[in-house]
Amino acid sequence: MSQLQPVIQLQSMAEPLLNIQEMQFWLDKAVAWGQADSPDTQGDTCLHLNRLRDLLQQLLTNMNNTSSTIETMKTLPFLGQFLGRLCWNPYVTADATSRRLLFQCLWGLYSEHPGNAVERKANQWIRKVLCQLATEDDDAAAQAVMKHMGVPPKEYYLKLLRKRVALLQENIGKSCNSLGDINQRCSCDSILATSEACVPLVTCPEAAPLIGVLLQQPAKCARASLSEDFLDALSSAYSSQCSSLEEQTVISLWYHNLSSLEEAVLSQLEDVVTNKGSTPQRLEEQLAQSLLPKACAQHCSIYLVVKDIFRSILKQAEGVEPVKHLIQTFTSCFLRELALLQHQTSVSLKALFPESPQSLLLPLLTLPSEMPQEAWRRHLNWLSGSLQRLTEEEEGGDRDSSGSTKRHHKVFEAWFLLVQCGHWVQVAVQLLVTSEPEDCGPLLWLLTFYHHPTNQWHHRELQLVVDQSGLVDEAACVLSSLQPRLNEGSRSSDDCNRVHLRITALQNTLIHSV
Amino acid sequence: MEAVLKNLASTAELLAVATQSGAVEQWDKQTLTRAFQWARYCEHVFNRFHNNPATRRIMEKQLQLTNQSLRAAFPGYTEISFSDLSRCQHLLLVGLLNNPDLPSSILKILFDSPVNTKKSEYQDVTGFCSHIIQCKSACKVLSPLTGVSAIGADAEVQGVMLMERLGALLSQSGKASQTEHFLDSVLQGCEGEAEHFCQVIAAALLTTKTSAAQTAAQDFLLDWLQNKHSELQHLCSALHTTLLTDLAKKHLKFRDAYCGVLKKWTSDMEYSINDGEWVQTSTNQTVSFKRLTEHFLALFEACPAQREDVEKELNALKISDGDFDVRGLSVWGDLLSALNK
């Protein structure tokens, strides 16, 4: 252990600490922010807030590596001045993360057992700054009034904050009548400035109503744009769960900010890929909680973006089962949400599924539960046949290269739609198990198509051998889930026996083919 | 009652220890939490009994006794009064933060990130100071956006609080003198910030919540204001005309008072031949003739009914001055002609 320590020390000294130029840049910034109080300085602070947070984190890490305050001050002589200036910058202290990091940096300079005058002085200074921040006021008038009225400062500031938020909310609520005339001034000018000022307030619960109004304003005017920094800050606060936003605010955020929507979708995808053991119910719950289906139901544009993301994922990795399950569950959640809204908005299926083969839309979107069980087989046969025809068109025209991309595209879209409506695939597996070998053709074709849409190495003709992993998994799942259901079902014993035998036979085939 | 008195005494002692004793070195999170709980308790006691003169007197006596013994125990002890109890938590915090013996571990708890991000009223000591700093900073961040209005948001909030305090005092004590005393002390305390206090009064008078208590409080405030001539004059010269006319529209008493002030200003004017204009004779030149005219015109626009009466009065005064139509002889005549241009 003692041999390791000198090595570690050497390493931390060899690592370049913050270089002097960078430090000077930030120090100059801090000075500039403290001096002027113009809208430009405001905007500048908000612009740099992200980088400032990273800087503070870096400083903190450096300080944790050094052994004493004296050493830190040697390597970063302006650190005290810098931190001190930041303490008086309300944009830095309003934001939860930068405030936390700032205070942690201050504590980094604090010595529990000061050994010399410099450290004692540093301690005193830190205590003084903290005391002033928490108890003093530069608004002498307010302080006088509060003192003589016997109002606790905390209560006053909370009320004042809520009042300011309410006033700003009102201002934004007023619609503007400029009707898109860019030269005419309107009240929407303030929206950009307000959104920028809210960058450090995304984690402040009292500011949440204002943020909600900013995001949900109808924005008919060209001037009513939101600051990109604001949207990014909000998005990262939400994804790191620092900020609890209302449902509509989140949905509006996604509507305004593509990258936050992408992040939300990708995090769901990551989740399914890493947690393979989640049950379908859990997946549904998770998706509902994520608010994505609801958002898609409210805004067709959001739905199209989400689908695009799914589409590109599938194009890269068509065989990833958890992803396909996610897409299927997502689509059913989405359609449920859409049905709830249907009396308010009337979006046509064509608008929601513009690229899918129209003839397949309704047949695939119809749920098995919406159809009598006896009709299932016929329906699936029809589906299988239609899809087969589509793929034959694609393959048949391969020699003619001009239209081939379009045809490939058509087949892909058809397959994508099938993935979204995966409930029919599950029905197909169910029927496979309970049917005679002769009726299997179209069903097997459908399954193979589902698992392997590209026909490069597999033949989709009639197959009885189940040597594709996807099909094996699927069949195994369905079989094991059917067993208990049969045991409790109220079918005739003959049926039961037949199915039992069939299941056992299929199980044997599975075991022997893998 | 005895228990409450005992608790008050104990909390006063607690405050003294927090502010001046090295005993805080031993404090841990639990001690800190308990200390703030007691401070909150005192704030509740204040809110409950401050309008009850009899109980209040008993409590004040108790605090006097406690102060005496604490003065003996702690040199440089600052006495605590009953009205201080309304801000007990703040006093505790100030005391602690200024106490050099406070361990850094306690400081760290106070400045840590607040535990509950929800708007719950759960009072956890962790992040007590962070929360205050967040609110203050957020207020500062938003203040340039609320734009330039006649009354700032801060004055509005303070106005509402003033109304609440007045309402509470009037509804329970019934003694006007106590409420008057309260207003006097607030006025005195804001001596350095007179203009701001004018805004607070205006905001208080313009609050629109209509309850019987509110109306009574506003009425009381108006009566008080009418008796404070210098404050009233200061208000009329410091505030924006729109604000004054809003007040005049809302409160008849104010309209009359405002008119009275304007007339007084007029009567104080003398014609300066050098300037070719009427100027105020008093040492603090608060208003010019032009401004005075603007005041009158704004008032007439807001309250048209007033015009006839005032013009009649002005005319009568002009006649008493000799009824000349020459400029510079009668301020009333000149005022009338300026108003009728």
TrEMBL record, chain A:
This is FA complementation group C. The lineage of its organism: Eukaryota, Metazoa, Chordata, Craniata, Vertebrata. The gene is FANCC. GO terms for biological process: cellular response to oxidative stress; interstrand cross-link repair; nucleotide-excision repair. It holds the Pfam family Fanconi_C. PANTHER family: FANCONI ANEMIA GROUP C PROTEIN, FANCONI ANEMIA GROUP C PROTEIN FANCC. Signal peptide: none annotated. It comes from the Eukaryota. InterPro entries: FANCC (IPR000686). GO terms for cellular component: Fanconi anaemia nuclear complex.
TrEMBL record, chain B:
Gene3D superfamilies: 1.25.40.490. InterPro entries: FANCF, FANCF_C_sf. GO terms for cellular component: Fanconi anaemia nuclear complex. Coiled coil: none annotated. Pfam families: FANCF. One of its GO terms (biological process) is interstrand cross-link repair. This is FA complementation group F. It comes from Sparus aurata (Gilthead sea bream). The lineage of its organism: Eukaryota, Metazoa, Chordata, Craniata, Vertebrata.
